[in-house]
Amino acid sequence: MCSMIPSRSLSDVCGEAESVRQSNLHSFSDQIVADIYGNAEQITRHVLSKKENKRIGFDHRLDDIVTSMWFGYPLMLLLLAVIFWITMEGANIPSQILASGLFAFQDQLTLWFQWIGAPNWLHGVLVLGAYRTLAWVVSVMLPPMAIFFPLFTLLEDSGYLPRIAFNMDHIFKKAKACGKQSLTMCMGFGCNAAGVTSCRIIDSPRERLIAILTNNFVPCNGRFPTLIVVTSIFIGGALIPYSGVINALVITGLILLGITVTLLVSWLLSKTLLIGEPSSLVLELPSYRRPQIGAVIYRSMIDRTLFVLRRAILMSAPAGAVIWVLANVYVGDQSILSTVAHALNPLGQLIGLDGFILMAFILGLPANEIVLPILIMSYLATGSLQNFSSLEELRIILVNNGWNWLTAINVMLFSLLHWPCATTLLTTYKETGSTKWTFLTFLIPTLIGLTACFTLTQVIRLLGLV
Amino acid sequence: MILSAEKKRELWQNYFGISLAKDQIGVALAGNPNVGKSTIFNALTGLHQHTGNWPGKTVDNAQGGFQYNQKSFLIVDLPGTYSLLAHSVEEQIARDFLCFANPDVTVVVLDATCLERNLNLALQVFEITPNVIVCLNLMDEASKKNLVIDVPSLERELGVPVVAAAARQGQGLIELREKVFQVAAGSLKTTPRQIIYSYEVEKAVKELLPLVEDIAASNALSPRWIALRLLDGDRTFLKSLDSFLSHEQTSPLSWEESKCAL
Smallest CA–CA separation between B50 and chain A, in Å? Predict the structure, then answer.
């Protein structure tokens, strides 16, 4: 090949091309992809014939509504809100039944321990520590999960999730990220570690990293119960007539906030560390299916509810025991637990939390599921050792430890915006193979969470609202 | 501009790590993932295959040979991709090979059960290289789904030979070999249909054409295609082109992985 030196160098040409590219309001790359598809569609129309299928016609009409500009987003939000509403309305009573049963059994256990003459510390570690945390996790977390997961799986099974991705594609584009990120984000609602792994579907390394770094901004299975419980106690509880609806709206709002932060951070990353243009997303919408009830129940119960519960139990029973020990071993005149909590307290107060809450979040690093159980354990272990059988009693415990609505909001905010769990961090390391990106996955949400809670708290306090 | 056989062998060897024998005809095999590309590759080449990696990449590179009408052919199996817009390493490899290696014939394998999505790739290949044959695979699956494809009129629409096949059943492979031979020998002419873009894009392309003409002409590339990639803002292509240009002027083996955003 005779390569004569081109009169214009490549970089000159690129520079001039860039100005032509910027001259258009819409993205050329989107238009180009749309045109290629337009051509392919035109050819296909000429050469392909098939026997008419009524289902396909129905799907098309349904898709016109579900993915339309006006109905797409409201429908999405409405569905989410309804799911949360059903979850929170439905979870209350089974929660109470479970709690009274499990705590009655605790009294029985205590009697047995006394009968065999077990030493006090053994009873403390096993019954007051491990068993009580476990009972708490089961009674508070199981009912919402057992309602929420089947409903969510139903949505998934019907073929609605790809429509969500389709709807969200263009805002992700605006944030200079890939539309597929909305799918990995949906995956993150299940589990952030799974969400990070699912980022493999994104081809461009730049967009994949953005998706990995921002996956943690949607609350996972482990964090939903915390959010649901705290909302039920503090937000809806304060406005009794419409509490169910308000609760559902608050959780939906939190998720919206998470998505907003996802988009903002994606956009910021595209402008700073990971500069580039978004690639186009071509998504084939599968046809709607009637969900198979058996499969839905199996998948949501076995794969999700029991999986999360098992992880919560495995983590929280030992954690409960350890915390009981920490709370009952004294160094000087303070238990180890109080010493640590007091050390963390100034920072906690600054962001509208307290030392115990911050400690619970730190100890919750292995699994987000155990943040609330740890917190309750530490409050109970230091204060009066009462049992509780309903959310109302839980509310009293929290209020006695200085909680108000601002604390509740900050806990929810911080739960949404803080470091990912250890599993997610490990997965991120495996996927990116880089300590730098893994560290950023830790740092970015933490900084955002600290800033958000700090700002909110200071503003509310300045206005004298608390 | 057409490469001399000698130059081309050198280029394939140095730049893509593929040894093309003297007078051997180079055939590229492209297609979406899961369209039976490997089945066709295996059926055509039998045991005369060898696999390696694309230079500097972790993507498999399978090559195989066959003889037909006293001619020797070398088939290069490109990674399965949905497009050539280079979002992934696979797409980059497929694009760079079609773009810089100038294969004598390119076979694009399409899945007849989702023609529209598959045509996308075919249309993009048409923009890069003129000697294309479309192999419409999985015809048996398509008829199970009540899909009827009018092959002669598809041939007219596309401007290239279309071979209907069901590779797993061994149908259509003889015809495919014959068509590959005819296109390589020049007895079968192809005029692949070019994508017509919307007004804005066409206008911008016209503006850019004079700028890229030199680069295109000196590298046997389509100026229209380069202009489109510039409009895309496709950095990976510009990097590949840059590395190709510098490779042409300096020593061989300067093929470096065009690093994406990382």
Answer: 27
Task: Identify whether A262 is part of a domain.
Answer: yes
| B chain contacts of residue A21, beta-carbon cutoff 8 Å | 204, 230-231, 233
Q: What percent of chain A clears pLDDT 70, i.e. is strictly above it? A: 91
H or E element: which one contains B105? strand B105-111
The domains of chain B are located at 5-185, 199-249
Whether residue A48 lies within 8 A of chain B, CB to CB, comes out as: yes
- Domain holding A327, by residue range, is 67-275+293-462
- Residues in chain B with CB shorter than 8 Å from the CB of A50 are 145-148
Q: Does A56 touch chain B if contact means CB atoms closer than 8 Å? A: no
Mean pLDDT of chain A: 82
Question: Furthest-apart CA pair in chain A: how many Å?
Answer: 97
Q: How far is A287 from chain B (nearest CA, A)?
A: 14
Q: A52 pLDDT band (50/70/90 cuts)? A: low
The first and second tokens of residue A20, run together, are 């032509």
* Pairwise CB contact (< 8 Å): A51 & B146: yes
- The Cα–Cα gap between A226 and A420 comes to 15
Give the pLDDT band of residue B107 (cuts 50, 70, 90).
Answer: very high
A277 Cβ under 8 Å from any chain B Cβ: yes
Q: Among residues 347-406 of chain A, which lie with CB inside 8 Å of chain B? A: none
Q: Give contacts of B242 with chain A, Cβ < 8 Å.
A: 10
B11 contacts in chain A (CB < 8 Å): 1
**What is the per-residue burial (b if ≥16 Cβ within 10 Å, else e) of B45-65?**
beeeeeeeebbeeeeebbbbb
Q: Does residue A351 contact residue A454 with C-beta atoms inside 8 Å?
A: yes
A5 pLDDT exceeds 60?
Answer: no
Residue A236 pLDDT exceeds 70: no
Which of A32, A41, A51, A56 best probes binding to B when mutated, by most B CB atoms within 10 angstroms?
A: A32
Question: Does B214 contact A48 at a Cβ distance shorter than 8 Å?
Answer: no
pLDDT tens figures, A274-320: 877 777 766 667 767 777 788 778 777 777 777 777 777 777 788 77
Task: Give the span between the Cα atoms of A244 and A229, in whole angstroms.
Answer: 12
**Res B257 pLDDT > 50:** no
Per the model's pLDDT, the better-predicted residue between A258 and A30 turns out to be A258
CATH H-level superfamily of B5-185: P-loop containing nucleotide triphosphate hydrolases (3.40.50.300)
Report CB contact under 8 Å: A2, B150. no
Contacts of B14 in chain A (CB under 8 A): none
Residue A319 within a domain? yes
8-state DSSP, B131: -
Q: What is the rounded CA–CA span in Å between residue B138 and residue B118?
A: 12
SS3 track for A47-68: HEEECCCHHHHHHHHHHHHHCC
With a CB-CB cutoff of 8 Å, which residues 236-275 of chain A face chain B? 274-275
How does residue B202 score in pLDDT terms, banded at 50, 70 and 90? very high
| pLDDT over 90 at B121, yes or no | yes
Q: What percent of chain B has pLDDT over 90?
A: 37
Question: Hey, which of A185-189, A252-256, B93-97, B104-108 has the most confident mean pLDDT?
Answer: B104-108
For chain B, counts of helices (H) and of strands (E): 10, 8
Counting Cα atoms < 13 Å in the Cβ hemisphere of A449 gives 27
Residue A210 forms part of a structural domain: yes
H-helix or E-strand spanning residue B92: helix B89-100
Q: What is the mean pLDDT of residues B90-96?
A: 88
Spatial CB neighbours of B156, under 8 Å, sequence gap ≥ 6: none
Contact status, residue A243 vs residue A88, Cβ threshold 8 Å: no
